[in-house]
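Following up on my earlier thread - several people asked me to post the actual chain instead of describing it. Fair enough. Here it is, all 180 residues.
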Amino acid sequence: MKVMLRVPTRGHPHVASAAALSWLQKNTDWGADWHQNKFCVALARNEIVAEARKKQPDFLIMFDDDVAPPHSVLELPKRNKPVIVGPVLTWKFGRFFFTCHELNEDEEFLSIDKFLPEPMEIYAAGAALMCIRKDVFNLEGPLFELRLNPDGTLLPFGGEDINFCCKMQERGVPIYADSA
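Reply from S.P.:
Thanks for posting it. Predicted structure:
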């Protein structure tokens, strides 16, 4: 199985992500490396996807430059899911949440706040740690774009990662989360 791993960065990665990348470079044959775009992470993600489309690995893994992925990152390609995220904890409203979401009947995003011992299908997730299978990253067009209001301001949950998940849902591509 051929895996390509990239860490999108604007040029100032955290020590933890640098240590994780160094470990992955020494202990896997994944072709792990940084990818810098000083302007925008959405552009960096699309540049990484373009590189994957040229190199054609079986899986593309990206983790953000402020993330130290758990050792279980090694398991993500083995799950063989179209898109699978390793949820990253975030703090908001006075408690921790995973960066993955369900969609309620009012089409509002609800953060998942429980540990997921097995992969679970979800509606959307942040791309802080994401594994994308070849058939998905080869879909046409840019995959990571911001969702904007008509006035050009960012929609709530309008980041490029959530928009990627919404696009995948529209195309019938399931998104999974695995916090094991």
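The first helix runs from residue 15 to 27. That should answer part of your original question.
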